[in-house]
């Protein structure tokens, strides 16, 4: 990339000197690199750093002179005495595990089946991928109708099978998270399926053939040949799954009625908005929560990147 | 909370990017700015124009406000530039809005919620206006319009009472009597359950958890009185106080009579179940009338005030949230704004408004009440006979405290109403975070 500048000083004589950039080129480069860099700094790094700074303060967001430095108080309060915090952490973890263990493998399974050129495969593909085309908020509406306690689909069926029984899908704190997870999985499966299917389409069939010549059965072929060979897709899927779990927000927001965290459905992202958006905002407190989420995300992403690159280097 | 906000369209959910931007603190102002300050710059210098920020985005209030401002223009020759923003968005972004370039006059709510922004210096006092409109308002209304510094900051337009609503025909058919005391009330609920009704219609699912606060407020007001309730709301007494636990104990007595599946139902669906004669009663505000589509049904709806618990307090308090107007801190056209507020505080403006939107009661005593329907008349009587008027928990208290601490706690508890002391401890531990300043 930067061979022009970082080339050792002894070498230039050996090679023809690279042509100097004309003023126009330099201007072009400055604009094309400079603007994104400034945008990145202003819109990503500055707010992130400001947020970290604000997390050590107490501020109602109204006048700058009201910002009080309170050190680690916000964090101490959050970790020791903020009732929804630990449930939120727990729910984020549940979200991650659930998404990684059920809809993701299921999406892969579907992709593998659909790749075998079964009949009507296009129809299946379309049907399973369809939810992905919808915004997660719209998915929320659809499931809101299904879960409605009075005239929803599920309670309608339930009432037919066992009259008088009534399940409060979205209201019961022990149940609502799972109800939301099912709705989110409904969409996630199609997403994973299409990603994996794309990978399978580019897979060299000769490898499969070779495996079957060697006497491998379906299961062995998939686990030992196909799955490892699709490493790039697997990495994308892993990243997508982790990201979707950490940023889980919109569907919970919609199914929770659009007013932040609900008992049983607390998530870190919702707690942040609870504290920051609204009439009496606690910018400092919310920022501290945001920093917690940032650290968790960085840990997840960092671990993953280190792992991947270490292997690549070897 | 007002009725218009009660049909939150999830399309309104802020996009993730916006939320994150907000979460990062810095972009918070940007969130509201493009929507709310759309007409900030242009008309600034125009002495013939007043800008008006309205949260009445639903068809009915929008039409009503348009009628009112149109009449003002006719009277005064001043143009009103209305900037309507969706109700929930307006509420959520109010502090950014007021710090940016707000409209001269804007819609808001009475009570602590108004006083909060007055205290923060984000509103302009309107004492001059009150010198002229004051005669039209009762002392209770005057009290509601003052900030903590004793100056006026608010001009009321309408209010609506909370009570226990029922259908006359259901009570007639089954021979029920509107109960006046707590024991009669619980006995009636028990009887209704026996008769196969859901005694108390309830839907506090999703974004409607605010609706349970009506019951909480009344229980606390009836059992512990106005003064205790207000101190509790303002964060001046401990939530672990014996009196608060008593409120929860009373609530636990009627919790079994709540409609099943309430945690997943909207208030509209709960109200509908009352209209469909599936539920017997509902603790709700007059805005229940919004659910009525068949006018003949309206005559069949009645209410009784929340029953007496402690005879020494009786039924002296009525919960009647008041909506009205405030003046932003640096109005661009102060004279014009004062004239507009004067007009908005007049009986004429109230008549114009109520003519379009009949689900409220005018606050100005000079307003024409001859066209009121039976419910409005009864509401007006109920409110005028009250010794104290409360707003609503989320207006009498810090709305952040109510929405992020009290509401999740109460809804969770109401799902399994066991001993409330753990819940009260949890709420109490958060109190100091909101009421230090």
From TrEMBL, chain A:
Similarity remark:
Belongs to the binding-protein-dependent transport system permease family.
What is the official name of this protein in its record?
A: Sugar ABC transporter permease
Q: Which residues cross the membrane?
A: 27-50, 93-114, 126-146, 177-200, 221-243, 283-306
Q: How does it sit in the membrane?
A: Multi-pass membrane protein
The cellular location(s) given in this protein's UniProt record come to: Cell membrane
The signal peptide stretch is none
The source's superkingdom equals Bacteria
For the keyword Calcium, the answer is: no
Pfam families the UniProt entry points to: BPD_transp_1
Q: Which GO terms describe its biological process?
A: transmembrane transport
Would the keyword DNA-binding turn up in this protein's UniProt record? no
Cellular component GO terms held in the UniProt record: plasma membrane
What keywords would UniProt list here?
Answer: Cell membrane, Membrane, Transmembrane, Transmembrane helix, Transport
Q: Which residues form the ABC transmembrane type-1 domain?
A: 89-304
Give the source lineage, highest ranks first.
Answer: Bacteria, Bacillati, Actinomycetota, Actinomycetes, Kitasatosporales
Automatic annotation (TrEMBL), chain B:
Q: Respond yes or no to whether keyword Signal is given for this record.
A: yes
Name the domain of life: Bacteria
Q: Which Gene3D superfamilies match?
A: Periplasmic binding protein-like II
Q: Where is the signal peptide?
A: 1-32
Coiled-coil positions are none
UniProt xrefs under Pfam families = SBP_bac_1
Recorded hits in InterPro entries, A to Z, give:
Bact_solute-bd_prot1 (IPR050490), SBP (IPR006059), TAT_signal (IPR006311)
Keywords on record: Signal
Concerning PANTHER family, the annotation shows: ARABINOSE-BINDING PROTEIN-RELATED
What protein am I looking at? Carbohydrate ABC transporter substrate-binding protein
Source organism per entry reads Streptomyces liangshanensis
């Amino acid at each position: 990339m930067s061979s022009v500048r970082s080339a050792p000083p002894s070498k230039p004589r050996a090679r023809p000197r690279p042509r100097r950039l004309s003023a126009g080129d330099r201007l072009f480069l400055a604009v094309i690199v400079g603007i994104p860099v400034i945008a990145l700094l202003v819109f990503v790094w500055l707010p992130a750093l400001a947020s970290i700074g604000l997390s050590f303060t107490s501020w109602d967001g109204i006048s700058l002179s009201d910002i009080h430095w309170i050190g680690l108080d916000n964090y101490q309060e959050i970790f020791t005495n903020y009732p929804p915090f630990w449930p939120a952490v727990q729910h984020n973890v549940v979200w991650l595990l659930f998404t990684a263990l059920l809809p993701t493998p299921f999406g892969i399974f579907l992709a593998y089946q659909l790749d075998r050129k079964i009949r009507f495969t296009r129809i299946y593909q379309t049907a399973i991928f369809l939810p992905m085309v919808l915004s997660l908020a719209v998915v929320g509406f659809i499931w809101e109708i299904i879960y409605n306690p009075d005239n929803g689909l599920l309670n309608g069926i339930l009432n037919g099978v066992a009259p008088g029984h009534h399940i409060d899908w979205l209201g019961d704190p022990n149940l609502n998270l799972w109800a939301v997870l099912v709705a989110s999985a409904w969409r996630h499966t199609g997403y994973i399926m299409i990603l994996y299917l794309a990978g399978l389409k580019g897979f060299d069939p000769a490898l499969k053939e070779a495996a079957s010549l060697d006497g491998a059965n379906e299961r062995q072929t998939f686990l030992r040949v196909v799955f490892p060979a699709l490493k790039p897709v697997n990495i994308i899927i892993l990243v997508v799954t982790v990201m979707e779990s950490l940023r889980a927000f919109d569907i919970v927001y919609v199914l929770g009625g659009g007013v932040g965290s609900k008992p049983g459905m607390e998530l870190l992202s919702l707690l942040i908005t609870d504290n920051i958006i609204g009439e009496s905002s606690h910018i400092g407190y919310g920022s501290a929560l945001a920093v917690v989420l940032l650290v968790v995300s960085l840990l997840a992403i960092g671990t993953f990147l280190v792992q991947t690159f270490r292997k690549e280097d070897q | 909370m007002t009725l218009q906000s009660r049909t939150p369209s999830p399309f309104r959910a802020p996009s993730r990017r916006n939320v994150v931007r907000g979460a990062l603190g810095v972009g918070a102002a940007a969130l509201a700015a493009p929507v709310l300050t759309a007409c900030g710059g242009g008309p600034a210098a125009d002495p013939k124009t007043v800008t008006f920020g309205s949260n009445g985005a639903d068809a009915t209030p929008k039409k009503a406000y348009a009628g009112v401002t149109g009449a003002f223009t006719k009277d005064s020759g001043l143009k009103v530039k209305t900037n309507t923003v969706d109700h929930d968005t307006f509420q959520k972004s109010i502090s950014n809005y007021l710090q940016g370039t707000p409209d001269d006059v804007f819609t808001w709510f009475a009570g602590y919620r108004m006083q909060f922004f007055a205290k923060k210096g984000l509103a302009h006092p309107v004492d001059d206006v009150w010198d002229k409109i004051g005669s039209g308002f009762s002392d209770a209304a005057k009290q509601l319009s003052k900030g903590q510094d004793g100056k006026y900051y608010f001009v009321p337009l309408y209010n609506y009472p909370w009570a226990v609503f029922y259908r006359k025909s259901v009570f007639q058919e089954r021979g029920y009597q509107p109960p006046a005391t707590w024991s009669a009330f619980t006995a009636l609920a028990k009887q209704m359950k026996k008769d196969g009704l859901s005694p108390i219609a309830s839907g506090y699912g999703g974004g409607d958890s605010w609706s349970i606060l009506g019951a909480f407020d009344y229980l606390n007001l009836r059992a512990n009185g106005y003064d205790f309730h207000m101190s509790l709301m303002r964060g001046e007494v401990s939530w672990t106080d014996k009196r608060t636990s008593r409120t929860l104990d009373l609530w636990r007595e009627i919790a079994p009579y709540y409609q099943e599946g309430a945690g997943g139902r909207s208030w509209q669906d709960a109200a509908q179940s009352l209209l469909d004669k599936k539920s017997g009663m509902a603790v709700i505000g007059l805005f229940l009338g919004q659910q009525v589509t068949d006018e003949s049904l309206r005559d069949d709806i009645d209410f009784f005030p929340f029953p007496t618990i402690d005879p020494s307090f009786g039924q002296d308090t009525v919960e009647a949230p008041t909506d009205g107007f405030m003046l932003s801190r640096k109005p661009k056209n102060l004279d014009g704004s004062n004239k507009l507020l004067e007009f908005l505080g007049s009986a004429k403006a109230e008549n114009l408004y109520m003519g379009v939107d009949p689900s409220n009661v005018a606050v100005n005593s000079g307003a024409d009440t001859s066209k009121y329907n039976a419910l409005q008349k009864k509401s007006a009587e109920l409110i005028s006979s009250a010794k104290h008027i409360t707003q609503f928990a989320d207006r009498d208290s810090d709305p952040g405290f109510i929405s992020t601490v009290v509401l999740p706690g109460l809804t969770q508890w109401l799902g399994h109403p066991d001993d409330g002391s753990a819940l009260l401890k949890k709420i109490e531990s958060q109190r100091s975070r909101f009421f230090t300043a």
